[in-house]
């Protein structure tokens, strides 16, 4: 039984998601009436049209429940239905369509109502009009250009008090007042720049669940109904912070390395912070969450590849079911970035590093919506009419299996030079090879730990020995040989002396003066001893024997440890030793030296991954043969559904989907028995089934969107950055607080302390994120100055001059720039171009024509130079990598960012008129370059001299400029009004201007540290 507090939170998120799903109304896909006859003043519609609409809604309702005819005794009749009424529609003018590429008709304002068969309209329980989010500024969908209003204005209108007395006249007046508050004009006076407004009523019977979020909402409904909160979701939903655990010390890395068994790519090893994140992930138990803070350009993709590769190998070693891994994010662009990263990995040459089954490529399987267009090169599955179709489903047949088995066996025989084995025997052999390599790795760590004991042995051998004998955990074997030679020579001298002693000294050795004489002569011989000999008793012959025996034994032990370690390194093609501490790691990186962990990842662990991949390919053949033989291929009970996904995981280790789609895929079929037609099939979720949930770009995922999917998983790694792009919050704060109260998460709607606590920890649908929730839920904190969780710190995308701005703005100087300062480049890495124009209103958005002209002029002046410069770089890279060079376009090397949709249109129009090729060129808000990069980024601030006394959109937080600047690999060019940017030196834009000015006056020199730059005012 779940904690009631958790169920209340789920109910709150469910309500918030329903409110947030303000998508475009799919008019054509819903029961609808164009040119509806509506008397808005009286509150009535055509009875004939109302009846047609209600009939269609009635048929749709019954069809969903499996009732096909009114003859069905369970048929539900409707006398009225909830509808939406649009008083007008908006179409782009032809010229605007030409520049914006937006041909669609928009319905930005819908009136909620209920209608009966007589055509009478009633007020809806939810009185506020339905306004689709895509038409509100700030816009995040780059394909939408029409702006109706902005989120803040709509939120303010929503806050207007209205007492719903059920009277249509009161409701009508309220709606007219809301519309005027949002637009500044009455409904019937509305106009939109560059668009035609057609005043004609459209009616739609629209069920809110038939939206992109229906899969998530149904998952919430199941969890709430069943009172089931799996452990990892419970951890995410806990209001208390997770108990904090100490970070792994450098010494723990050695044992942690044994648990890191797979590496997907060989070209680059993990960075130090990536490795730390992976090793800490290995410490998690089921039900736990690891947050990894990933600033821009710090290698989140490489980390995720390693996480997946490691799970593949570990599950192969266990020999049971494969790990089921799901990578999720909030939108298709983020998901596309993930699937691309699993598809385009450069591999070593050789049959071992190829796939052994026909038609299998990459390591990801995309799970998109049914209507999503996907490139044929990307393996994908869709759910069509309740059934899975595509990719691996197409391979579950006797014909493919026969071909696959022949090719698999042939590839094995050619790769391993071993013939005559069946698929079953091959999988057993491959698993034994995996175990051998795992044992080899374990042995290496044991030998290294043994080797490190040399330091203590040397201390025992010679407490005052030269430090260079074992400096940086490396034995100076030549020096050890010299010591051994000197000790053996001294031993021989002592033996020779004692052999040559006169018989009288031996005979009268018990006399005191004889003892003294012998002791003096022996101590004289020891003066050249390279070791400390204070323990030698020169009066006792036995003491000499003990001294030499012990010292030579220690030397032999040291040499034995060293030889064992060096032999293991040679066998595993390892050159260097593990660094002793963090400073050792950093020193190796500074000197661009590969060291122990790097070499393992690019060698032994890379091979382990491919052996495991081929093991699972063989297991897939065996499992699919079995399920076909048992005629269970189409069954979908709990066990069959789970085994199907496990079979898919044998071919594609990582499933990739959006949070909106994932719940629709991970379900099974269950017959709900009843009498007659009451028996229906249900599709409950496979809760706590996925072994590992990976969340990428988690800082962009609103909590109500992402939380439910955690119910499908056993543990999670959540990667993101709350200092980059934020979620698109579709729920006004007032609605959010009302949902908290209605769901009993808070007992008083005015309890600001309780609301503040939830806000701080990321729970709220109007301000929170999955990343914030994961930070609260993670047991580790890497840096006290930053949020909880691990942190990736090595930045390799931008020149040091560029990323230093972001580093100081957002990351407390913790990022480690690795690309280096700019040298021999086309442009200065940070530039400012002053533009003195004014901004103009574009509906509720902004544009600055003079700034657009300045940017177009800059692009025209430099485009050929830029393309030629980067084409040379591309040609050289292609030659090195022995591939065909890509022909670069302007779109490949430049991106243009602006905060405003109005300026996006102005830029597109001006550039096109200037003759610039806009094919594929990214022009838009920071969302347009989400997770992407370009060599050159141009930023159009848009505000003009008429905006001096206003606040600025890009100064609301560090996020926008942090993202914009960090998209630029080689050059960031800021266009704006100097008066705007110098208004305050504490804002992000003010700091950016001052930083560019400082760099211009004092260029950065090679090797200069970021800490030498001026601190924030």
TrEMBL record:
InterPro entries: Coronavir_polyprotein_1ab, DNA2/NAM7-like_C, DNA2/NAM7_AAA_11, P-loop_NTPase, SF1_C_Upf1. Residues 272-344 form the DNA2/NAM7 helicase helicase domain. Residues 787-978 form the DNA2/NAM7 helicase-like C-terminal domain. Residues 473-500 form a coiled coil. GO terms for molecular function: ATP binding; helicase activity; hydrolase activity. It holds the Pfam family AAA_12. Keywords: ATP-binding, Coiled coil, Helicase, Hydrolase, Nucleotide-binding. Belongs to the DNA2/NAM7 helicase family. This is AAA domain-containing protein. It comes from Chitinophaga oryzae. The lineage of its organism: Bacteria, Pseudomonadati, Bacteroidota, Chitinophagia, Chitinophagales.
């Amino acid at each position: 039984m779940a904690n009631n507090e958790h169920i209340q939170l789920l109910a709150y998120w469910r309500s918030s998601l329903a409110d947030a799903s303000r998508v475009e109304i799919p008019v054509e896909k819903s029961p609808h009436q164009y040119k509806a006859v509506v008397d808005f003043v009286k509150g009535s519609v055509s009875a004939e049209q109302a009846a047609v609409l209600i009939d269609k809604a009635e048929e749709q309702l019954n069809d969903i429940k499996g009732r096909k005819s009114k003859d069905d005794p369970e048929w539900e009749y409707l006398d009225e239905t909830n509808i939406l009424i649009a008083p007008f529609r908006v179409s782009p003018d032809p010229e605007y369509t030409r520049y914006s590429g937006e041909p669609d008709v928009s319905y930005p304002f819908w009136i909620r109502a209920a209608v009966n068969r007589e055509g009478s309209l009633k007020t809806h329980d939810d009185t506020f009009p339905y306004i689709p989010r895509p038409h509100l500024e700030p816009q995040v969908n780059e394909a939408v250009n029409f702006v109706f209003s902005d989120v803040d204005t709509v939120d303010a209108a929503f806050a207007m008090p209205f007492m719903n007395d059920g009277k249509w006249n009161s409701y009508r007046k309220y709606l007219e007042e809301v519309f005027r508050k949002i637009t500044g004009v009455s409904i019937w006076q509305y106009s939109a720049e560059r668009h035609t407004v057609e005043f004609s009523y459209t009616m739609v019977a629209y069920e809110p669940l038939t939206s992109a979020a229906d899969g998530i909402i149904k998952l919430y409904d199941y969890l709430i109904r069943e009172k089931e909160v799996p452990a990892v979701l419970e951890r995410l939903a806990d209001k208390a912070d997770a108990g904090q655990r100490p970070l792994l010390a450098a010494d723990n890395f050695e044992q942690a390395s044994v648990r890191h068994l797979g590496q997907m790519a060989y070209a680059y090893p993990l960075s130090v912070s990536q490795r730390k994140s992976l090793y800490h992930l290995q410490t998690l138990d089921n039900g736990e969450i690891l947050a990894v803070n990933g600033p821009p350009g710090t290698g989140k993709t490489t980390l995720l590849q390693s996480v997946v590769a490691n799970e593949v190998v570990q599950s192969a070693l266990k020999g049971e079911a494969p790990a089921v891994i799901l990578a999720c994010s909030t939108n298709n662009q983020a998901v596309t970035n993930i699937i691309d990263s699993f598809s385009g990995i450069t591999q070593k040459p050789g049959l071992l590093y190829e796939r052994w089954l026909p038609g299998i490529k990459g390591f990801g399987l995309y799970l998109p919506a049914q209507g999503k267009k996907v490139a044929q090169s990307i393996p994908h599955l869709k759910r069509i009419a309740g059934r899975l179709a595509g990719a691996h489903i197409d391979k579950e047949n006797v014909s493919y299996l026969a071909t696959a088995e022949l090719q698999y066996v042939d590839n094995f025989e050619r790769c391993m030079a071993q013939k005559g084995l069946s698929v079953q025997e091959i999988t057993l052999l491959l698993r034994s090879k995996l175990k051998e390599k795992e044992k080899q790795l374990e042995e290496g760590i044991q030998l290294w730990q043994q080797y490190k004991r040399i330091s203590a042995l040397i201390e025992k051998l010679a407490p005052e020995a030269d430090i260079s004998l074992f400096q940086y955990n490396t034995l100076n074997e030549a020096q050890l040989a010299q010591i051994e030679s000197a000790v053996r020579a001294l031993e021989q001298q002592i033996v020779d002396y004692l052999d040559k002693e006169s018989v009288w000294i031996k005979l009268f050795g018990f006399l005191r003066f004889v003892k003294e004489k012998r002791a003096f002569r022996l101590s004289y011989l020891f003066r050249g001893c390279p070791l400390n000999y204070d323990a030698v008793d020169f009066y006792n012959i036995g003491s000499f024997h003990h001294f030499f025996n012990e010292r030579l034994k220690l030397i032999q032990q040291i040499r034995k440890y060293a030889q064992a370690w060096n032999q293991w390194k040679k066998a595993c093609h390892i050159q260097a030793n593990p660094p002793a501490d963090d400073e050792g790691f950093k020193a190796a990186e500074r000197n661009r030296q590969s060291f122990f962990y790097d070499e393992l990842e690019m060698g032994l662990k890379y091979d382990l991954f491919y052996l495991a991949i081929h093991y699972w390919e063989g297991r897939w053949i065996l499992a699919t043969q079995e399920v076909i033989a048992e005629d269970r291929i189409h069954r979908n009970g709990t066990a069959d559904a789970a085994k199907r996904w496990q079979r898919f995981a044998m071919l594609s280790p990582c499933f990739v989907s959006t949070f909106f789609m994932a719940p629709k895929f991970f379900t099974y079929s269950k017959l709900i028995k009843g009498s007659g037609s009451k028996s229906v099939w249900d599709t409950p979720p496979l809760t706590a089934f996925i072994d590992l949930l990976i969340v990428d770009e988690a800082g962009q995922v609103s909590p109500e969107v992402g939380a439910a999917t955690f119910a499908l998983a056993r543990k999670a790694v959540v990667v993101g950055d709350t200092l980059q792009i934020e979620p698109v919050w579709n729920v006004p704060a007032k609605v959010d607080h009302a949902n908290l109260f209605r769901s009993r998460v808070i007992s008083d709607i005015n309890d600001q302390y309780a609301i503040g606590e939830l806000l701080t920890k990321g729970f709220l649908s109007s301000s929170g994120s999955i990343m914030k929730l994961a930070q609260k839920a993670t047991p580790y904190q890497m840096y006290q100055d930053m949020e909880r969780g691990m942190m990736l710190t090595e930045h390799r995308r931008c020149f040091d001059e560029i990323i230093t701005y972001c580093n100081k703005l957002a990351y407390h100087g913790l990022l480690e720039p690795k690309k280096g300062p700019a040298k021999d480049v086309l442009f200065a890495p940070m530039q400012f171009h002053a533009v003195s124009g004014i901004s103009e209103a574009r509906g509720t958005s902004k544009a600055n024509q003079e700034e657009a002209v300045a940017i177009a002029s800059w692009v025209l002046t430099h485009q050929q130079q830029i393309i030629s410069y980067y084409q040379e770089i591309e040609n050289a890279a292609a030659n090195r990598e022995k591939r065909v060079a890509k022909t670069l376009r302007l779109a490949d090397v430049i991106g243009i960012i602006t905060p405003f949709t109005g300026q996006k249109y102005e830029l597109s129009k001006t550039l096109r008129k200037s003759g610039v090729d806009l094919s594929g060129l990214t022009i838009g808000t920071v969302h347009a370059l989400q997770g992407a990069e370009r060599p050159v980024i141009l930023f159009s601030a848009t505000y003009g001299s008429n905006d001096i006394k206003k606040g600025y959109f890009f100064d609301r937080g560090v996020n926008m400029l942090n993202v914009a600047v960090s998209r630029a690999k080689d050059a960031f060019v800021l266009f704006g009004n100097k008066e705007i940017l110098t208004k305050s030196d504490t804002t992000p834009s003010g700091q950016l201007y001052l930083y560019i000015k400082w760099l211009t006056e004092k260029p950065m020199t090679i090797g200069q540290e970021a800490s030498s730059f001026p601190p924030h005012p």
